[in-house]
Amino acid sequence: MVKIKFHSKLIGQRDAVQRIKRALLYLNNSLGINAQIKPYSFFHTPNFKISPGHRWDRSGEDYRLNDYELERLEQNIFTRLKNSSIAFQKHFFKNEFLYEYALSTSKSSDIWLYLETLLKTYIKESSSTRIDEIISEVLLSSSRKDNLDVLELYLINSITNDRKQKIKIERKEYSRYFDMIKNHEGIPIEEIETLTNHRFIHFLTAKIRSIRSTDNTQSYNTYFLEVLSDLKAQRNSFVHTGVNQNKSSIALSYLMPDILIRFRRNIQDKAIESENLNFNQVVSLFRK
């Protein structure tokens, strides 16, 4: 049910529908589903007890959330940031609809609008005028860890999915490896290398070893700035000409959601660690 307060029944209905649509964006993005609302299917009542008027379309089946989906919804951003400062929450949460909308469309113009709006007050207070540099510095704080997590998980999944069972590892060992990845402890690649001569597995372990021993900060920074430069160019092209460059747009639609999630996660982590700081002060912690 959605509680509304309007003199006009029609305006109240439209307001309720818009609020439900915003909530559905969050549900769809969080759970990977495609729930929809039928805007002309509703009951309306002045006291939540009787229904003086309604339109109701009962076609289709109800969708019920399972326990896993309910648990995911309970682990939401509002709960996660409950111990951050009120000032941080006020700024961060007021832009959530823009974020959910950008995530649902994956359009460059929508993603850039969210980032531009989120960082607007910080840019105004600081000497920085480049959004891409700010975002890159936030991402760099976890870039090595993020890359290692992806490669290590890929390595373990490659072993797990070995249909020919050439690599014999006990189930408890898999669990130990996954726990090590989850806790960012670093899986024992030397131990894994002794279990197989498979060329691809050894390629992955060599890649992991290289990332662990090499400072790739500059290459990560170059990569992030190039992606963000493409994002801004796509946004400008769409805003000024109404034209999207299809190949670049498709690539960005795959890259940017993950970059957005990492960017927001890093800022949230800092906000939780520094619970007395506002949004602009939290972003400043990433600047060199």
Which key features would you list for this structure?
288 residues, mainly alpha, two-stranded antiparallel sheet, globular
Explain what you see.
By secondary structure, the protein is mainly alpha-helical. It folds into 2 domains: 9-68, no CATH class; 83-288, no CATH class. 66% of the residues lie in helices and 2% in strands. The chain contains 14 helices and 2 strands, in the order H-E-E-H-H-H-H-H-H-H-H-H-H-H-H-H. A hairpin with an 8-residue loop joins strand 1 and strand 2 (53-55). Helix 6 (108-125) crosses helix 12 (217-241). The longest helix is centred in the C-terminal third of the chain and has 28 residues, at 246-273. The protein starts with 8 loop residues before the first helix and ends with a helix. Residues 50-59 have low confidence and may be disordered.
